[in-house]
User: Which sequence fits this backbone?
């Protein structure tokens, strides 16, 4: 369950961590260029096949101008003006008509177009021509139509277009002549009918006016009763206003008397009213009273301001006021009645105003009765007036229609010879030219579609590819530095002059070809390893990989050789107890080794063997134990490592793959650093993440990553399917657990092949199991 959970966590990490730096477009195009080229070639091939299968299509074109010729009309002086002008922006109808059966049908019949090869065998030649016919206005301001026809025979295209243009010209001439005759006949009938209707309307209005009920005022009829009603309304409004004035005056006098106002003030108000009415005599009498009495009243008011009411002067002025009032009252009463000097002028005035008010109201009532009678008479004449108005409007409408019909009839007669639509052939159609199939257009479209299909296919493959694409992607995803790239190794030829030990495997290029590019790559890894261990006691370094076949053993051996060549004392330990291979690479024995030393069967220093390379010793695996994991977890193993750390400058430990067994997890905590070897393939991303997680969980000090099996020509171009991902040599059987649990599976290969990768493979050396000498000493 723990392994499954770790596997799921690793896959989640892989899927959730896309390339944050964006997609490498150039790298993507270079990696999948063959898919894109395949799409391009396929698109061009299919386009050419389509071109070959398409029939040839030819097209011819002709042009014609359509104009509207207006009639010549006389102007002042007897001259005539030619109104023949083109029809502007009215060719939509012509475009539709030319492609209609009304035009194409006669063209087929009159010119025997059905016998042409283009129409031979067609059940409906008219529809065939319409489908291949296009009509367009060449310019919005020009009155020229361009007619095109597309067909499979070039000579037929021009003939069909010319026949259609000829048919349209005949159609316009025939249609206009027929239209002129029909229009003239219709206008004549309309003129006669309008004349009859106009005479009938005029006779009806004359009879209505002969009755004398309606008065004429110019061309308008007047209802006399309505006039009287309006006059009575004006008179009653005047009387109502007069009566209102009297009522307001009487109300004001009554209110003043009730409030105790002086009679002189009331008389002054009456005087103003009389002046407004124009009653001079009454106004003079009232003025006499106010002129004599007003000074006395003013003097009384002045004395009261300085003396009391009982003062002799105040009493004297009041007597004079009383005497003056009595005298004036007698005078006003005499002038008003002529017989009764004691009559009150104010009372007489009020009574006279009331009589006027009553008389006015009586006159208003009489006018109301008279107005009612006039309204009844107006209603009787309203029907006659409405009928007269309707007849007048009908006469005007008929006269306007009659004049319009006369004008159109005159234009029709004048334009019989020069008016109408007219079409002229501007350019006759010739032999058709080929327009399809266009090989350039088809191949261009095919190329574009092919490239798009190739890009889509490449993107699908790229999305499904779980391999690493670049060093930056590996470093970013695993958060580890890349120590170097282990190259593609070409098998070295063993020298025959005895200058080198021929028992060493040819894959050790650092031994056979120390000046080659491959050897230089391993020296670069050595240099990077030096820098990664500077300032720290990293003497014991474990080398492992995620999966079998990643090339860890060959990588470890070559790096060990380069370190030894630099003058460092190096010990190479084969801790792969399940499938030991280091002794075979150097042609050494494996009867005793690390397993024997851990078990206490032999002293560790006696188990170390010398190699043909100076400063490089090897500690083979020894007999394969039945419990390799338990053996590596013993304290004895850690004690041996501590002992060897003191004896050598560098100790390299070759261990099994991390994802195959748990042996590397037992070794990692006991070493100073771990070097992870990765081979790029279609599942290297997921395996690399899982291996890094397992090592991180046990607090392993991962120094960096070595990318194995990279061709020098494709350095930096990772991806499954490159030469660097091809495995040659011995295989690992059927899976990690099964192969490692039972000795890795079967061993085999192709010894005749002369190319090797830096992978784990069995050597074909004849002295793989016999050469080498066991060193029975402790290194100084």
Assistant:
């Amino acid at each position: 369950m723990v392994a499954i959970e770790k596997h799921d966590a690793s896959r989640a990490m892989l899927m959730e961590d896309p390339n944050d730096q964006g997609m490498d477009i150039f790298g993507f195009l270079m990696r999948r260029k063959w898919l894109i080229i395949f799409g391009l070639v396929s698109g061009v091939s299919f386009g050419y096949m389509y071109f070959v299968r398409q029939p040839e299509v030819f097209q011819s074109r002709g042009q014609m101008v359509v104009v509207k010729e207006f009639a010549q009309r006389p102007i002042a002086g007897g001259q005539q003006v030619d109104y023949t002008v083109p029809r502007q922006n009215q060719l939509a109808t012509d475009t539709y008509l030319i492609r209609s059966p009304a035009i194409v049908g006669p063209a087929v019949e009159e010119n025997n177009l059905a016998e042409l090869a283009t129409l031979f065998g067609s059940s409906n030649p008219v529809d065939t021509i319409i489908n291949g016919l296009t009509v367009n206005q060449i310019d919005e301001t020009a009155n020229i139509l361009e007619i095109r026809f597309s067909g499979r025979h070039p000579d037929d295209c021009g003939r069909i277009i010319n026949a259609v243009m000829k048919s349209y010209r005949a159609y316009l001439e025939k249609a206009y002549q027929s239209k002129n005759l029909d229009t003239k006949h219709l206008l004549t009938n309309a003129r006669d009918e309008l004349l009859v209707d106009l005479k009938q309307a005029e006779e009806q209005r004359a009879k209505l006016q002969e009755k004398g009920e309606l008065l004429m005022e110019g061309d308008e009829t007047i209802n006399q009763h309505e006039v009287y009603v309006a006059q009575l309304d004006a008179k009653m409004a005047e009387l109502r206003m007069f009566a209102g004035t009297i009522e307001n005056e009487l109300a004001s006098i009554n209110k003043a008397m009730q409030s105790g106002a002086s009679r002189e003030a009331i008389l002054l108000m009456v005087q103003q009213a009389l002046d407004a009415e124009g009653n001079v005599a009454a106004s003079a009498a009232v003025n006499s009273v106010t002129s004599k009495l007003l000074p006395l009243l003013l003097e009384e008011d002045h004395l009261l301001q300085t003396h009391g009411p009982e003062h002799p002067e105040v009493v004297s002025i009041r007597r004079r006021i009383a005497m003056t009032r009595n005298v004036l009252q007698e005078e006003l009463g005499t002038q008003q009645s002529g017989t009764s000097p004691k009559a009150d002028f104010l009372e007489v005035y009020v009574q006279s105003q009331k009589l006027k008010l009553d008389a006015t109201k009586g006159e208003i009532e009489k006018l109301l009765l008279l107005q009612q009678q006039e309204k009844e008479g107006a209603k009787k004449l309203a029907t006659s007036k409405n009928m007269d108005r309707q007849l007048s409007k009908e006469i005007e409408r008929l006269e306007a229609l009659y004049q319009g019909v006369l004008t159109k009839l005159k234009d029709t007669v004048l334009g019989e010879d020069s008016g109408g639509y007219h079409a002229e052939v501007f350019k006759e159609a010739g032999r058709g030219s080929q327009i399809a199939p266009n090989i350039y257009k088809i191949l261009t479209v095919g190329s574009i579609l092919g490239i798009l299909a190739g890009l889509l296919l490449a993107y699908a493959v790229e999305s499904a590819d779980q391999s690493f694409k670049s060093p930056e992607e590996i470093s970013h995803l695993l958060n580890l530095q890349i120590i170097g790239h282990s190259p593609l190794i070409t098998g070295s030829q063993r020298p025959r002059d005895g200058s080198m030990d021929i028992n060493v495997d040819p894959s050790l290029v650092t031994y056979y070809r120390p000046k080659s590019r491959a050897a230089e790559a391993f020296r670069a890894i050595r240099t990077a390893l030096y820098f990664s261990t500077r300032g720290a006691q990293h003497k014991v370094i474990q080398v492992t990989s995620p999966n079998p076949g990643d090339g860890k053993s060959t990588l470890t051996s070559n790096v060990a050789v380069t370190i030894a060549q630099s003058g460092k004392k190096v010990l190479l330990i084969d801790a792969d107890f399940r499938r030991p291979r280091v002794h075979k690479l150097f042609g050494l024995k494996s009867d005793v080794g690390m397993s024997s030393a851990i078990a206490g069967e032999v002293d560790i220093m006696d188990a170390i063997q010398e190699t043909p390379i100076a400063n490089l010793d090897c500690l083979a695996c020894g007999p394969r134990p039945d419990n390799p994991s338990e053996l590596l977890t013993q304290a004895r193993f850690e004690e041996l490592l501590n002992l060897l750390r003191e004896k050598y400058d560098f100790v390299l430990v070759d261990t099994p793959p991390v994802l195959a067994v748990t042996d590397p997890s037992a070794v990692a905590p006991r070493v100073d650093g771990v070097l992870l070897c990765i081979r790029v393939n279609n599942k290297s991303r997921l395996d690399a993440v899982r291996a890094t997680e397992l090592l991180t969980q046990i607090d392993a000090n991962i120094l960096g990553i070595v990318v194995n099996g990279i061709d020098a020509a494709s350095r930096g171009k990772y991806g499954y399917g490159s030469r660097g991902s091809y495995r040659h040599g011995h295989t690992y059987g059927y899976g990690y657990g099964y192969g490692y649990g039972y000795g890795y599976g079967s061993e085999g290969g192709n010894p005749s092949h002369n190319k090797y990768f830096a992978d784990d493979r069995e050597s074909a050396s004849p002295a793989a199991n016999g050469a080498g000498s066991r060193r029975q000493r402790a290194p100084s």
Notes: The chain has 25 helices and 21 strands. The first helix runs from residue 2 to 16. The longest strand covers residues 57-69.
